[in-house]
Fold this sequence. Notes:
The chain has one helix at 12-62. The protein is an all-alpha fold. It has a domain at 34-63. It is rod-shaped, with a radius of gyration of 36 Å. The termini are far apart. The mean pLDDT is 80.
Amino acid sequence: MTEYTPHIPSDSTESDSIAESLQRLSKKIQLISDAVKTLHQERSQLETKIEDAQKRIQHILSRLPEQSDARQLNLLGDPVTPTNPEDDNEPTTH
């Protein structure tokens, strides 16, 4: 069996280049970690927006009249003045 022996740099230039490589890798890992964190936050925000939109849609759908209901739809929630056929702003001749 062969026992593992770690490579020990023979001179300081080799250890310096290894240290520089490790530093570059550490920076890249940090950038990737930051990007992943940002993506996670953005995804969470988008999921919240989707849930809010689904709630608004459900609220609108819940206000729809039944199929047999012939009333005018008021999806925006604005007060609707009832239309009275007797009062259509035309002068009477009586």
